[in-house]
């Protein structure tokens, strides 16, 4: 499903599009839907990657969206993202789990990265600055609020590996965490 968030004919703002997944039950009236994706502009030609929560699966679906102009028609194509090459990969070398979340996005959307583990990451809101907030996980396992903030990391340098160092006072293991 898709919709035009925060758009009406009276505004001068460019149109945005948002998408969600709908459970594949036989009864359309009883169908459940996932959370709406971040909105993206259809006035910007090119590609954007979206993360869509699935009402049926725990893991989100990652879609590559291509916006192009064919004659006088704006064409929006959705395709499954190649899981072997995620937009970002977060590697946690700490002995404690951490959560990463895009600044400006509700903490409920945070991604939990297990200790000595990794997680593929997709920005929740592609129209916001690509800055991650990193925190110690709260131990509840849900990736939500409650962890000790460690800092922020900008992902604006495309094609470069970015490392986030944690000082010994902030983390007992004093090991680096990379993104």
Short recap of the structure:
By secondary structure, this protein is mainly beta.
Report on this model:
It is a single chain. The strands form four sheets. The chain has a four-stranded antiparallel beta sheet with strand order 10-7-14-13, with no helix packed on it. Mean pLDDT is 76; it is low at 140-144 and 168-179. The protein is built from no helices and 14 strands. The chain has strands at 2-3, 16-19, 40-41, 46-52, 61-70, 73-80, 88-92, 98-102, 111-113, 118-121, 131-136, 149-154, 163-164, 177-178. The two termini are 32 Å apart. By secondary structure, it is mostly beta strands. It is 0% helix and 37% strand.
Topology at a glance:
Blueprint (H helix, E strand, L loop, with lengths): L1 E2 L12 E4 L20 E2 L4 E7 L8 E10 L2 E8 L7 E5 L5 E5 L8 E3 L4 E4 L9 E6 L12 E6 L8 E2 L12 E2 L1
Antiparallel strand pairs: 1-2, 2-3, 4-5, 5-6, 7-10, 7-14, 8-9, 8-11, 11-12, 13-14
State the main characteristics.
4-stranded antiparallel sheet, 37% strand, 0% helix, disordered C terminus, globular, 14 strands, single chain, mainly beta, 179 residues
- Radius of gyration from the alpha-carbon trace, in angstroms: 18 Å
Major beta sheet summary: 4 strands, antiparallel
Task: Note the total helix count.
Answer: 0
What is the helical fraction, as a range of percent? under 10%
Find the structural class using helix and strand composition.
mainly beta
Low-confidence stretches: 140-144, 168-179
């Amino acid at each position: 499903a898709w919709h035009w968030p925060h758009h009406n004919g009276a505004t001068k703002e460019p149109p945005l599009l948002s998408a969600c997944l709908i459970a594949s039950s036989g009864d359309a009236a009883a169908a459940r839907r996932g959370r709406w994706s971040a909105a993206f502009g259809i006035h910007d030609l090119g590609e954007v990657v979206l993360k869509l929560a699935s009402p049926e699966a725990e893991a989100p679906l990652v879609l590559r969206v291509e916006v192009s102009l064919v004659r006088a028609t704006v064409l929006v194509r959705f395709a499954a993202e190649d899981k072997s090459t995620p937009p970002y990969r977060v590697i946690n070398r700490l002995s404690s789990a951490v959560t990463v979340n895009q600044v400006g996005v509700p903490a409920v959307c945070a991604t939990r990265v297990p200790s000595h583990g990794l997680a593929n990451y997709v920005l929740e809101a592609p129209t916001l600055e690509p800055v991650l907030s990193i925190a110690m996980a709260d131990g509840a396992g849900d990736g939500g609020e409650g962890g000790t903030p460690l800092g922020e990391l900008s992902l604006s340098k495309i094609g470069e590996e970015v490392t986030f160092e944690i000082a010994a006072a902030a983390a007992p293991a004093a090991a680096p965490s990379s993104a």
